[in-house]
Specification:
The protein is mainly α. 59% of the residues lie in helices and 0% in strands.
């Protein structure tokens, strides 16, 4: 009986690709939100994400510093 193990690496590889795709989708949606707040000057949908997508790179790609600044302005805004 001949056993072939050519597909044994496929499940982990597909899982990694799925996670990376989910991160890209989350970044795209976060950038759209920042764009709607006029806090992102560049295109919301065009970005490059290396593999592995480490957290500091993901935060920078999202524009998280813009989001934190925006939320800070809401906290310090006097009530109307």
């Amino acid at each position: 009986m001949l056993l072939l193990s050519a597909a044994s690496g496929a499940p982990p590889l597909l899982l990694a690709a799925t996670v990376h795709s989910a991160i890209r989708a989350a970044i795209r949606e976060a950038r759209k939100q920042l764009k709607s707040w006029d806090k992102l000057d560049e295109s919301a949908s065009k970005f490059y994400l290396d593999v592995p997508a480490i957290m500091p790179v993901v935060k920078t790609t999202i524009g998280l510093d813009y989001g934190e600044k925006y939320l800070g302005t809401l906290i310090h805004k006097p009530p109307t």
